[in-house]
User: What shape does this take?
Amino acid sequence: MSRPEIQVKDLRKSFGDNEVLRGIDLEIGSGEVVCVIGPSGSGKSTLLRCVNLLEEPTGGRVLVGGTEVTDPDVDIDAVRRRIGMVFQQFNLFPHLSVTENLTLPQRRVLGRDKAEAAKVAAENLARVGLSEKADAYPASLSGGQQQRVAIARALAMGPEVMLFDEPTSALDPELVGDVLAVMRRLANEGMTMMVVTHEMTFAREVADRVVFMDAGVIVEDGTPEQVIGNPGNERTRHFLSRLLDPAMADVEEEGPGRADRVDRGDRGPN
Ligand SMILES: Nc1ncnc2c1ncn2[C@@H]1O[C@H](COP(=O)(O)OP(=O)(O)O)[C@@H](O)[C@H]1O
Ligand SMILES: [Mg+2]
Assistant: This one.
């Protein structure tokens, strides 16, 4: 593996007496793309949120770019600047234009002046294929376009790693492909990425590694061919078979519309 960019060591997180992460060990190399899959409630979001300290771990250590972010004396703001995060919900400011949504955090958090922030905003809107929407307001954009703006907003901060938490799960199926295409391009540019997703085609084609989580532990960690193509563990096989056959889906675990996305493929431009 190349230089480790994210190191997670015996990470534990409890909410009250509910132990949600039960000793997670994971290393992600610089430029690596790791997809995290697993049933609802298995701790995927909590893992991502512990990496950028949106949640405080109960035990273990997390290092990003060699800096221990779980060190009590760490500068949390400095850590967060190195880590971009994209959520299922885009959380754009509705009263600000697309460009203003990208310049505001740069100016507030990084202290960039207006011209510099606007220049970086334009570069990153081009990166996600939305230069023509610079002056538009979020409400006039499709969900897929709004998510691409959210990705550009994160990129404009110059992160070293990008975390994605089910970035396409809230989108209508026909809008998923364009967002995945942007993420695929980012992966090809060498961004270090940790992606929680149910998009198995994306995971197969883009991920260097796939991690399967269940009940707060990593059950399998390997290449996509190993984990998706030829899972060694019964829990992984069970999870994948339910994704592929929605009729088998546990009602409380799989929302509607999720399973039918499996192996549909990315439709957007590559
Ligand atoms: N802020 C919180 N307070 C209490 N329990 C939480 C909180 N966040 C997550 N949990 C619990 O942690 C478990 C794992 O949740 P989560 O990490 O969101 O799983 P996943 O993303 O895999 O669906 C769930 O049982 C959830 O109810
Ligand atoms: Mg989640």
User: Anything to note?
Assistant: The first strand starts at residue 4 and ends at 15. The CA atoms of residues 31 and 192 lie 4 Å apart.
